[in-house]
Specification:
356 residues, mainly alpha, Hypothetical protein af1432, two-stranded antiparallel ribbon, 21 helices, 4 strands, 61% helix, binds fe (ii) ion
Length: 356
């Protein structure tokens, strides 16, 4: 009986959490008398994941997690895994390009960030996603499908190769169809009408693209955290993708190389996003993840020193786990990726900070 009542309460609370603005959600959950039950449930379910050195979760932190979880449980779980990966990044003794031991956490204080602030910034990096309507957060369309929706006549009858070539041409110009197509083109009329009213409530313009809406989670996350007194955490979370290409507020100098503290959250975030299933993709294998990180490092999307130490360490693990040969274990089609990763490691990820 109690279980049934709790479940009904959660469904009711989930409806409140879909309202968009963090402050309104918290106030309405509180007024409805369900905030403490939801927070307790989150504390019981995930509390043990936060028993890391010197990290203390406050009641307010569990409240933030509860709101995020009520809105979208998969984003909550991604946030906790990103937090765990970020923790590993700052505590693990990595081997640097010349064999030096690097513990990134030792450089946080010099960047004006405490360990606790860093970890909280990682945990709440996606808190702003509560502003993104579910229809967009769970949008399962990929670039190719958006392209077909944009040009149904032109693309009918074209084979896969031609479609891929067209996509490659767009990518080379820095264009992703999903980023530029108006939302109206992506959704059915009925879904779009519903979405439009949700977007209006959240302050988005009618002409917003998928990209505009998704990108908003970064400044919104920052706003929420700063408003709760988490200034530094907000600065870190507000830069985890660095869509706005701002100068980082917190930088560490490692082997003569400058790393934005938010860059550590970014590589942990990307790693978990690639490893996990999303609405629009299946989880990738470890070797695929490492390969993409080498490519991202080449394009400047992730820091070269962070990707170098991480890829080197994980690749060594993979070799250890597959003692009878990586390729025979993973399959011939992974050979090119393995070679590219080895080359990346050999070139020290093109990292030159300590070697210049
Ligand atoms: Fe994000
Ligand atoms: Fe994320």
């Amino acid at each position: 009986m109690q279980k049934e009542t709790d479940e009904k309460t959660i469904v009711f609370a989930e409806q409140i959490a879909a309202e968009g603005k963090y402050e309104d959600v918290v106030e309405n959950l509180r007024k409805a008398g369900v905030l403490s039950l939801c927070t307790e449930k989150i504390r019981n379910k995930y509390g043990s994941r936060f028993t890391l050195d010197n990290f203390v979760m406050t009641d307010r932190d569990f409240e933030l997690l509860a709101v995020l979880g009520l809105y979208d449980e998969s984003t909550l779980e991604h946030s906790i895994r990103t937090f765990e990966l970020a923790h590993r990044f700052i505590t693990y003794p990595f081997l640097g390009p010349s064999g030096e031991i690097i513990v990134f956490g030792d450089f946080l204080a010099g960047a004006g960030v405490s360990r606790e602030q860093f970890l909280r910034g990682a945990l709440f990096h996606d808190i702003g996603k509560i502003l993104i309507p579910h229809a967009i957060l769970h949008n399962a369309l990929d670039d190719e499908e958006v392209l077909i929706k944009m040009f149904p006549e032109e693309l009918t009858g074209q084979n896969e190769h031609e479609k891929k070539a067209l996509l490659q041409t767009l990518y080379a110009k820095g264009i992703r169809p999903i980023d530029v197509v108006p939302l109206k083109e992506i959704f059915t009329e009925e879904k779009y009408a519903k979405l439009l009213s949700e977007l209006e409530k959240r302050g988005f313009s009618e002409t917003a693209t998928l990209k505009d809406v998704i990108r908003m989670h970064e400044p919104e996350g920052r706003r929420i955290l700063v408003s709760l007194g988490y200034e530094t955490e907000g600065e870190l979370a507000g830069c985890h993708h660095n869509y706005g290409k701002e100068a980082h507020a917190h930088n560490m100098s490692v082997l003569g190389h400058t790393i934005g503290v938010a860059d550590i959250i970014r590589i942990a975030d990307i790693t978990d996003a690639l490893r996990s299933a999303r609405w629009y993709k299946r989880p990738l294998s470890e070797i695929d993840v490492l390969f993409i990180l080498t490519e991202d490092a080449g394009m400047g999307k992730v820091d070269p020193l962070l990707s170098y130490v991480w890829v080197k360490d994980r690749y060594a693990e993979l070799l250890k786990e597959n003692k009878n040969g990586l390729i025979s274990a993973l399959g011939k089609d992974k050979e090119a990726e393995a070679r590219a990763i080895e080359e990346f490691i050999q070139k020290k990820g093109e990292f030159r900070g300590a070697l210049a």
